[in-house]
Design goal:
481 residues, alpha/beta, 15 helices, 18 strands
C-alpha cells in the first residue's frame, strides 16, 4: 500500500470563493469583496468603492455560510478524512483593527468544526487565504504596512485559543509565493490596486517592487510569530506553510534556457519555502534584490524571528507545470497565478493550463530532497465546463482521469521515499474561480446550480467523480479504476 494509514484524503475550499454572506452577522468587507467577476478573456477589475449595480462573485459565492451542514454531510458521505477551509479574517475582525472579535463570526466556525467532528473529518484551516480585511488594505496599503503584523497576530492568537480543541492542522498563508510577482499585489498581499483596473498585470516602479517585497517579508515575520505562538498555545498543533507548486522545465538544452529555468524555480518555488522551512532567506536573494533595485524594509530582530518560527510541514497547490526559455518569442501558456512557456509535450485544459501528472511526482521529489519535512498536496483539480447529460447527470470522466493520474503520481513519489501527509483536491464543491471569477470553470465533485452572473438556486448534486473519489478514499488510494 503506497499511502500510509491515516493519510488525509479530502477536499479544499477558500472562504472568499465559497462562503458568501459577505456582509452578514457582523462581517466586514475583505479585499476580494471589491473584485468583480471576469472570464478567461476578460480580466477581473478592482473597485475602490463597491458598486451596488455590479456583480461581485465573493458576495454570494456558493453560500457555504447557509449550506455548511449539507456540504459537510456530502464530504462525510465521500469519506473525507480532512477538509481544508479558510477562516474569513473580516468575519472575526471586521476591519482587522478591532480589539475584540466578532462573537457571531467565532460561533459560525464552531458550528462548522462541530459538523466536521460528526463525520470524523479533520479540519485543515488556512488562517489567511486571499482574504485581508479591506480596512487594513485601505489604512496600511495591506501588508506593506508593518502594523498589519500585530493585527494578524491578534487574529491568529484568537483562532488558536478559540479552536485549540477543534483544529490540529493549520496553514498560515495561502500560496504565499504569489507575492514574488506583481500579480500577487492585491489578492495575496492586500495592497491597493488602481480603481476600475485589472487586479493582475500591474506595472511597477522600483519603489513599488520594494514595497511588495517588504509586504512579503512582513508575511514571513507574521507567519513565524504565529507558528511560535501556536505551539505555545497547543504543542500538538501542526502548522504548515502553503505555496504554489509549479515546476519549470528548460524549453531546450540550451544553457541559456537551463539558466532561465533555474532562475524561475529559485524565485517561484524556493524563495519563500527557504524562509519558512529553513528559517532564512536563500543564498540567491541578495543578488536578486541588488540587480532589481529592491530594498526590503526589515528590523534587526527579524532574523531571529524567522529562525525560530519555521513550519512543521510544507503544503502546496499543484495544477500544472510550464517550460522556461531565454527566447522571448516562444509561445506562452496560461496558468494558476504563474504562467510560462508552453510545453509541446503536454495537453492543456479548456483554460490553457497544461496537464502534467508526472510533474507532480517530480515536484514532490524536488521539495522533499531540499527540505526533508512532511509534504501535503492541498490543492489539485481540473477546472472544466460540466454539461448535464441526457440522463440528467454529470458524467465528468475527464475530471476522474485527471485526478487518477495525479494520485498515481503521488503514489510513485511515496514509493520514492517522500513523506506525504495527505491530499485535499481543490474545489470539492463547485466554487468561484479566484483567477477569473467564473462559475463556468468548475472543479467540484459536487455541482452547484449557479452561473457566472450569479443566477441559480444553489442546489447541490453529486457528479460521477463524487462516487469515484468515495471509492478511492475507502480503499486508501488502492482502487483508482
Amino acid at each position: 500500500m503506497a499511502f500510509k494509514k491515516g493519510f488525509l484524503w479530502g477536499g479544499a475550499t477558500a472562504a472568499n470563493q465559497f462562503e458568501g454572506a459577505w456582509d452578514e452577522d457582523g462581517k466586514g468587507p475583505s479585499v476580494p469583496d471589491h473584485i468583480r467577476g471576469g472570464t478567461v478573456d476578460t480580466p477581473r477589475l478592482y473597485d475602490e468603492v463597491i458598486d451596488p449595480e455590479v456583480y461581485y462573485p465573493s458576495h454570494r459565492a456558493v453560500d457555504f455560510y447557509h449550506h455548511y451542514k449539507e456540504d459537510i454531510a456530502l464530504y462525510g458521505e465521500m469519506g473525507f478524512r480532512c477538509f481544508r477551509l479558510s477562516i474569513n479574517w473580516s468575519r472575526i475582525y471586521p476591519t482587522g483593527m478591532e480589539e475584540t472579535p466578532n462573537e457571531k463570526g467565532l460561533a459560525f466556525y464552531h458550528t462548522v468544526f462541530a459538523e466536521c467532528a460528526k463525520y470524523q473529518i479533520e479540519p485543515l484551516v488556512t488562517i489567511s487565504h486571499y482574504e485581508l480585511p479591506w480596512g487594513l488594505s485601505e489604512k496600511y496599503n495591506g501588508w506593506a504596512g508593518r502594523e498589519v503584523i500585530s493585527h494578524f497576530m491578534r487574529y491568529a492568537e484568537t483562532l488558536f485559543k478559540e479552536y485549540k480543541d477543534e483544529v490540529r492542522y493549520w496553514l498560515t498563508f495561502n500560496e504565499i509565493n504569489n507575492g514574488v510577482q506583481s500579480s500577487g499585489r492585491i489578492l495575496s498581499l492586500g495592497m491597493k490596486g488602481i480603481d476600475h483596473k485589472p487586479m493582475f498585470g500591474i506595472e511597477e516602479t522600483d519603489e513599488e517592487k520594494s514595497d511588495r517585497f517588504t509586504a512579503l517579508h512582513h508575511q514571513f515575520v507574521a507567519s513565524a510569530l504565529a507558528v511560535k505562538k501556536g505551539h505555545e498555545i497547543n504543542p500538538e498543533f501542526k502548522i504548515g506553510m502553503m505555496t504554489i507548486g509549479h515546476p519549470v522545465y528548460a524549453y531546450t538544452c540550451n544553457p541559456d534556457d537551463v539558466k532561465a529555468m533555474n532562475d524561475e524555480m529559485n524565485l517561484r518555488m524556493f524563495f519563500c519555502a527557504d524562509v519558512q522551512v529553513r528559517g532564512h532567506y536563500p543564498f540567491f536573494a541578495k543578488r536578486f534584490f541588488e540587480e532589481n533595485n529592491i530594498h526590503v524594509r526589515t528590523l534587526p530582530e527579524d532574523e531571529q524571528i524567522l529562525r525560530e518560527g519555521t513550519v512543521d510541514f510544507l503544503s502546496f497547490s499543484y495544477y500544472m507545470s510550464s517550460a522556461s526559455s531565454a527566447d522571448p518569442n516562444v509561445t506562452k501558456a496560461q496558468g494558476n497565478m504563474f504562467a510560462g512557456v508552453k510545453n509541446p509535450y503536454l495537453k492543456a485544459s479548456e483554460w490553457g493550463w497544461q496537464i502534467d501528472p508526472k510533474g507532480l511526482r517530480i515536484l514532490l521529489n524536488t521539495l522533499y530532497a531540499r527540505y526533508e519535512v512532511p509534504l501535503m498536496v492541498v490543492e489539485n483539480g481540473l477546472g472544466a465546463v460540466d454539461e448535464r447529460s441526457e440522463d440528467g447527470k454529470f458524467h465528468d470522466t475527464y475530471r476522474i482521469d485527471y485526478m487518477r493520474s495525479h494520485i498515481e503520481a503521488m503514489a510513485e513519489a511515496v514509493k520514492d521515499g517522500v513523506d506525504l501527509m495527505g491530499y485535499t483536491m481543490w474545489g470539492c464543491t463547485d466554487l468561484v474561480s479566484a483567477s477569473t471569477g467564473e462559475m463556468k470553470k468548475r472543479y467540484g465533485l459536487v455541482y452547484v446550480d449557479l452561473d457566472n452572473d450569479g443566477n441559480g438556486d444553489l442546489h447541490r448534486e453529486r457528479k460521477d467523480s463524487f462516487y469515484w473519489y468515495q471509492k478511492v478514499i475507502k480503499t486508501n488510494g488502492e482502487d483508482l479504476a
